[in-house]
Amino acid sequence: LDSNGKPPSGILQGTLTDFGSFDECLQLNTESLAFSERFETQYCLMDINANFNGTIPTDATPPPNIETDGIIWDPILRLFWSRNNLLSFRYGLCVPSTCTQQELMELGNFLAEPMGLSVNVHYCQKEKTFMVDKTQTLILASFASLLLLIIVGTVTEVSIIYRKNEKFLADKSIADFLVSFSIYRNNKRFLSAAKKLQGSPLQHLNGVRCLSLCWIIMGHTYFYTDFVHYHHYRRLQHIQNVDDDLTFMPIANFTLSVNTFFFISGLLVVYSNWKKLTASEGRIGLLKFFFHRIWRIWPPYFVVISLVLILPLLGSGPLWPQSVENTARVCRENWWANILFVNNFQTPNELCLLHTWFLAVTMQFYAISAFLLMLLYRFPKLCIFILIAFITMSGIAVYMYAIVNNLRIPTVIADEVFVDERNIVLTLYIMPYNHLGSYLLGIGFGYFLVKHKNARIPKHVQTLAWLASAFIMLFVIFAPYKAFRGFLPTVHHSALYLATHRTLWALAIGWLVFACSTKRGGIINKFLSWSAFGPLSSLTFLAYLIHPLLMVIHTGSIRERVYFGHYELLNIFLARTMMSFGLAYILFVLVELPFSSIEKYIFPQYSKSLKCTQKTTNAPPILPIITCNLSNQVKFKDQLLCLIEYIKKQVIFEPNAGVNSCNETRIEDKTKINDGYYVFISQQ
What we know:
- This protein is α/β, with parallel strands linked by helices.
- It has helices spanning 22-26, 72-80, 101-112, 134-163, 166-170, 172-179, 183-193, 205-222, 238-241, 249-252, 256-279, 286-310, 320-339, 357-378, 380-404, 418-428, 436-452, 459-478, 481-484, 491-517, 522-528, 533-538, 540-557, 566-597, 599-602, and strands spanning 17-18, 41-50, 89-96, 117-125, 233-234, 562-563, 610-615, 625-630, 640-644, 649-653, 660-662, 665-667, 670-673, 677-683.
- Mean pLDDT is 79; it is low at 54-58, 65-76, 80-85 and 606-684.
- InterPro entries: Acyl_transf_3_dom (IPR002656), Nose-resist-to-fluoxetine_N (IPR006621), O2_lipid_transport_reg (IPR052728).
């Protein structure tokens, strides 16, 4: 009895769950009890629901067996049982393992039916034994192999640096492959990558990325589409109370930050590829274009999905089967859709790691961007017209979808259309056309930035642009305020907002990015370009991948309810953000950087971006001049091998370190080495 859950205090404020004592139940020693045989105990969850389904209109009268004094009817039923029993009263049961779930359900329903209730018993757990299946064994073996490579690579680099190990130096290809996994080298590369935008016109994007990711984590801390996440909270009615607070609207509209990332992705596709596009006269190597992108995403993506599959081995808790094990089950069945970047087209129950819809949509946009880039270079006016046309059509598509499905501005009001809000997230929200406008605006602004960055803009026009940008941001964030308070707009007004607010947000972000990139950002640019954002910006992709896993683990392992209040959730947000960036750093150094280094071994032709050519100059007679041009196609510019035919030796360039080395000879931009040859090093 002591381990069983009991009706909690605060039911009228939305406290629906009492887990009981999970660990006490499973550790119960029945040998000391007065039973003829020793038996094991099991912990089960019992859900109690109302015996009705369907919509509860605002002016409806309560069904039989429901109190009519307005206290039970409004805050409880309308909030939690408005349709399909989204949430239910949930209690922990500690019973002998000989009892089946069916027997417990029959007994519970026998007692509950006279009160107009129904009982469901599920997720029964016994004391956990460590059992590993074949898939988990393969994953653990792969992780062990990767760890071994990391150890060997680190030891190899230390041996080369401090002991001049001739065995490894004799075969530089093997040594270079092993050192690709070295923690020492990859940590230096992390610090170097963190400075990749330092001094660049786009340095402020570091701050934009970091703040946008923090906004996403904050929003997910308050609101998550998996309803099991809310079972461990007390006073759930406070979710609706926050609607009255105008200052809460930025958190409620946190999904706008996703469109900031879509805009940045579109802008960088143009900005980072324009020089190569110009050099090749508008041609793009599609295989290299797509492979380099996919290769950057796949290794950490595989690791995160693999972590999900072994998570069931790593913990326990009242909600562990429903939270962690269910997530692992879905990923075990549908991981292939994530790897192929089509998971956003699956049904809600088939989505492995819901938040990875963003990666799928980004890759789908990236697929069309190659053709848009070539068109933008050859026929810029036609391409701009096409961009505007597609932005318009995507808005019309969202508008029509909202009209046909009678959708409204998404809020957290749990009334007769509460389920529709979840459907918005799982249907409209993850569809490409809902975010196409933001991405295409990024492409348009990227083109304008590379072609007209020195355009003269009068001061008064700049002022108007800043005011318009600020107004659009504030309007998009705060426009739904009345809807959150229960004053729902018409379907057409809701559809118009849904069709335009994300594109409008991207438009406002576009001016901010353009202004900061052209030295018109003032104090905003200085703040967003803060050097501390540099390292964190390199980790935003991995932190985004990881942070929902922390939510799933927290929900599954928690033993007691948490008060739903701003202070409590702020603490959770800060802890989750720091843990996300910390784990992202580990994955960045141990997974992303090593696999980016070995890309040249899988596709050697892709790494031949360092071309050596002989040029005729005014140098002293007879002495050839060799110029090495380092292409921007190479993401990490260190450790690139260039065989200079005239001096018959390998030169390892490390431009990020500020020093170039030729074996053990340190050379600067112009240094005489071997037989009077000169080497010039320049970056395109």
